[in-house]
Amino acid sequence: MTKLSEIALNGLALGSVYALIALGFVVIFKASGVMNFAHASLLLLGGYVIAKLHEDLGFALAVLVGVAVTAVAAGLIEALFIRGLGKVELHVLTILTIGIDILLTTELVRRIGSDKLSLGDPWGGDAVTIGDATVAKARIAAIITAVVLIGIFFAAFRFTSWGLSMRAASEDREAAALMGVRMKRVQLIAWCIAGALAAVAAVFLTASPTPGLDRTTGLVALKAFPAAVLGGMDSALGALIGAMLIGLSEALAAGYQSDLDALGGGVSGVAPYVVMILILLWRPTGLLGSKELSRV
After folding, report:
1. How many alpha carbons lie under 13 Å from residue 294 in its C-beta half-sphere?
2. Where are the beta strands (DSSP E) in the chain?
């Protein structure tokens, strides 16, 4: 029972981090209709900036600068390539984000090399005991931080003018623009928020028991993509639920790896995609995705 409790807490912590990343995918898709595959490189950028600055600025200030830099980088991608190209098909813009991801990741990987960079988090390898379960403090911090940030996001989405504009844009971007919604501002803010959340996620993806930031850290963002898809790409709540399912399934697969030897090694790595496929077979639009209706 102790093992299961520890796996569940680790799964919730992992799901919380995935939720921050998945919200980035969803908020961009809702605002601009683009699947941003450059999200992985933005996460790596945020982690890299924090890793380079934490010794000089301290952890907290380095995180603030890393979040700001990543938000600005995401905003520049939107302004220069998504909005800057004018009226281009959405699928073309989605493919463009893959190219941006390759370019940015290549440069960051060149800078990181074979090193494992520490982000200087204050939790280190400390652990805390909850009941019979022992969990790294970084995992608990991940859950608390995610709850706070996601709560702020949903409050802004529900009660601010930007949130109202986002909801209108997600329903019908053309109609929203005709009704006076400033789509350029809505899209820019959405991309900046997604970048900021990715930088925060990088902190917890590289904290203990992970050895630090390396060239493969950005690939973890791709595990959050199934969470956004199975939740419904246009549903923030669906992304949250999907992230928890993905995090728990990956933690369970890793925790009981010895019992799954018949399926081969590395089951935890493919578990998110297996869960996504199974749910999409049941609900093709995702758990809370909107169904498109066609008039005939």
Report:
1. 1
2. 127-130, 133-136
Residue at 44: amino acid letter: L
Tokens linked to 291: 């169904």
Contacts of 4 (CB under 8 A, 6+ apart): 255
pLDDT in tens, 29-82: 988 888 999 999 999 999 999 999 999 999 999 999 999 999 999 999 999 988
Cβ neighbour number for residue 118 with a 10 Å cutoff: 17
Residue 242 CA to residue 239 CA, distance in Å, equals: 5
Per-residue exposure over 64-76, b if at least 16 CB sit within 10 Å of its own CB, e if not:
ebbbbbbbebbbe
Chain centroid to Cα 222, Å, comes to 8
Please give the single-letter amino acid code of residue 249: S
Beta bridge partners of 128: 135
Q: What is the pLDDT of residues 212-221, one digit of tens each?
A: 899 888 887 7
**Closest Cα to residue 243, out of 20, 41, 43?**
20
What are the extents of the domains in the chain?
A: 2-218
As a whole number of angstroms, the distance between CA 4 and CA 118 comes to 29
Distance CA(20)–CA(218), nearest Å, equals 14
Give the tokens for residue 217.
């850290």
Token pair listed for 260: 């799954």
Measure the CA dihedral 16/224/280/78, to 10°.
Answer: 120
Tokens 């699928």 belong to residue:
91
Residue 192 has pLDDT above 80, yes or no: yes
What's the average model confidence in pLDDT over 179-199?
Answer: 89
d(CA 172, CA 195) in angstroms, rounded, equals 24
Residues 133, 219: Cα–Cα separation, whole Å: 29
- The band of 144, judged by pLDDT with boundaries at 50, 70 and 90, is very high
